[in-house]
Amino acid sequence: MEPNINKTISANLQFLRRSNGYTRKRLAEVAETNEASINSYIEERARAPLEVLIRISDHFKLPLDELVRVDLKTRYVCQMICRMDRIDEKKLKTEE
Predict the structure, then answer these.
(1) Cα 73–Cα 35–Cα 13 angle in degrees, nearest 5
(2) 24 Cβ neighbours under 8 A, 6+ residues apart
(3) Which SS3 state, helix, strand or coil, does residue 57 take?
(4) Tens digits of per-residue pLDDT, 45-74?
(5) Which pLDDT does position 75 carry in this prediction?
(6) CATH no. for residue 42?
(7) Which domain holds residue 61?
(8) Which of 19, 37, 78, 85 could join 33 in a cystine, given CB atoms 3.0 to 4.6 angstroms apart?
(9) How many domains is the chain partitioned into structurally?
(10) Rounded mean pLDDT of 66-90?
(11) Cα–Cα distance measured from residue 29 to residue 53, given in angstroms and rounded to the nearest whole number
(12) What is the pTM of this model?
């Protein structure tokens, strides 16, 4: 079963916007489109054109396939947990 690409894009646009402190208007500027279009992508009422997705992925230095296929929020949380585990391992080694 193919994942819902619109849902992934919507969630990732929201994650990128919020985690970088961007308004929807600022994200629209980055994508060189208007705020109404960004709203429709986030709300899954329209599919973002490839050109818009490329601009966003370039701006955030993110591979395009990750923007459309990977749950960035989940990946980010997993990376943070891994970093915390590494810090705990180092701390344990120094306490021995």
Answers:
(1) 10
(2) 17, 35, 38, 39, 42
(3) helix
(4) 999 999 999 999 999 999 999 999 999 988
(5) 79
(6) 1.10.260.40
(7) 5-95
(8) 37
(9) 1
(10) 77
(11) 13
(12) 0.78
